[in-house]
Amino acid sequence: MEYVIIGGEIVDRGHATVDIEDRGYQFGDGVYEVIRVYNGKMFTAREHLIRLQESAEKISIQIPYQPTELEEMLKGLIDKNNLSNGIIYMQFTRGESPRNHAFPHNVAPTFVAYTRKVDRPVSSMQEGVKAIFIDDIRWLRCDIKSLNLLGNLLAKQKAVEAGCFEAIQHRGDIVTEGSSSNVAIVKNGTVITHPANNLILNGITRQKVKQVCEQNKIPFEEKEFTIEDVLHADEVFLSGTTVEVTPIVEVEEKKISGGTPGQVTKKLQQLIMDEIVKECGTIE
Ligand SMILES: Cc1ncc(COP(=O)(O)O)c(C=O)c1O
């Protein structure tokens, strides 16, 4: 039996239904989060739940729970589903209301959450992945983790069709982020990633990478970099909740760092793993 949360209650998935006029379904009018679960424990739950709150506030959705309350509910679902390693997904939409672009009044947000078993992408992390470049055609509020992901989906699909793992998006020459990850390059020992502004999602993993860099005296800069910088980088990597730190070893068929993961990327993988172990215990 698989359980989910709907409307604050844990129920059998078969009994969870959402109205066809839910604004998430009709407009993508909502926000979401994905939190990694290792050994049955959430990693960086607090950070994700604060970002969820912030995303909701940016589009004037009122989440009717405090982050600590939400965390308890999510823990309950993880336990109920006996999830050891995987993810927990949650979303809040503006709620159910007759279709109308303007926000409805006095409508309660719809909250759903479910868990899924997902293995760590060990082989891509060890061997690296390929990527393509693609125009970033998304809106100008990519800092909001909104349900509206069409631009991201189109980018990812292009990557898959090209036999690649990720699409590195760019506005003009400036690289923003991946379709479902942040992108960083390493040049002369310095990790460089796009500033956390409206053009990217400020990834929780990106923030962890920044923290471990600072703690370990690895130079870290938040500044714009270009397509050319990627092609001439010593190393390139993705960061994200499910990909952790994944090396990119080829972009548009050009090999990066000789086609193998670089030293700084490997070091960051280890430092992030140390953080995971600190919070969730040893990973086999
Ligand atoms: C567009 C985008 N950027 C960045 C990220 C990485 O964010 P996080 O590290 O919080 O998973 C994601 C993750 O889903 C994403 O969808």
UniProtKB/TrEMBL annotation:
Reactions catalysed according to its record: D-alanine + 2-oxoglutarate = D-glutamate + pyruvate
Organism superkingdom: Bacteria
A Pfam family recorded for this sequence: Aminotran_4
Coiled-coil region list: none
Enzyme superclass (EC): transferase
Transmembrane segments: none
Cofactor: pyridoxal 5'-phosphate
NCBIfam families (alphabetical): D_amino_aminoT (TIGR01121)
Known partners and oligomeric status: Homodimer.
Full protein name: D-alanine aminotransferase
